[in-house]
Structures are given as structure tokens and as C-alpha cells.
Amino acid sequence: MSEAIPAPDSYPTICPYLYYQDGVAAMQFLEKAFGFRERFCTTDDTGQVRHAEMELNGGVVMLGCPPDFKTPKQLGQTTVGVYVHVTDVDAHYAQAKAAGAEIQADIADQDYGVRSYGVLDPEGHQWWFSAPLAK
After folding, report:
1. Using alpha carbons only, what angle is made at residue 78 by residues 92 and 80, rounded to the nearest 5 degrees?
2. What is the pLDDT of residues 43-89, one digit of tens each?
3. How far apart are the first and last CA of the chain?
4. Please, where are the H alpha helices in 35-122?
5. DSSP classification of residue 25
6. Rounded distance, CA 85 to CA 115, Å?
7. Which residues lie closer than 8 Å to 121 by C-beta, 6 or more apart?
8. Which segments of 1-110 does DSSP mark as H helices, in order?
9. pTM over 0.90
10. Rounded to whole angstroms, how far apart are CA atoms 105 and 86?
11. For the segment 106-133, what is each residue's pLDDT rounded down to a tens digit?
12. How far apart are CA 86 and CA 104, in angstroms?
């Protein structure tokens, strides 16, 4: 896990913050399935992630593990959806599927000009990945 804190001016305007019971596993999944890379991570004495940041194409997702938190899967409902633009959505879909991501909506062209798919991470957070349709 990294030690260096990213510079304040290296953050996009909005950074979603997701809560995970197992932050280490979440970070590994985000990297393997979605191609994120770690920017920063702090852990407590037990190795539990207290705060981490993952980056993909200049976008940042922050994550942590508050005490007594229930995951979306434990709650039986979707609590958040994160929408991410990628360069090659078909390759991204194949990578996510190969990593065992739970596909919610197969990849398809949308009438609003993108090709996209929907997926759940292991703790039940919803992710949407898209790329513009070729003109």
C-alpha cells in the first residue's frame, strides 16, 4: 500500500467515496476487473483499509471501511451507482467478466450515444462503464 499523499490539485472536481467491509479485497478487485490503480492507501493496526484512493484515466474513487457498516449486498439493495467513461468499453467488459464481476446489464449500444454495460462489485456497489458510439 502506498505512502505518498497525492497533491490537492491532482483531484477531479468530484470523487465518489465508497464504503467496503474488506477494503484490501475491494482494491484488488477494482484493479483486476476494472483497471484502476492505487494512488494512496492508509491502513489501521489490523491491516484494515481506513482510507484509499484508486484512479482510472484521471478519475478518482475513494474508499474506506467505517465500523458497523452494512454493504449493499447485506442491505439487499443498490445504494450507489458509479458511471465511468473508458476508452474501449468492449475490452473493459471482457476484463470485468473475466475477473468474475457480476454483470447486471450486458454491453449494448444505447440510444443516448454510448455503448455501455452495468456490473456489481463483490460487495454490491453498482458500476456503469461506457464509451461514445463511433460516428
Report:
1. 65
2. 888 888 989 999 999 899 999 887 677 777 777 777 778 999 999 99
3. 42
4. 72-75, 89-98
5. H
6. 10
7. 26, 29, 30, 33, 101, 102, 127
8. 23-34, 72-75, 89-98
9. no
10. 17
11. 999 999 899 999 999 998 899 999 999 9
12. 18
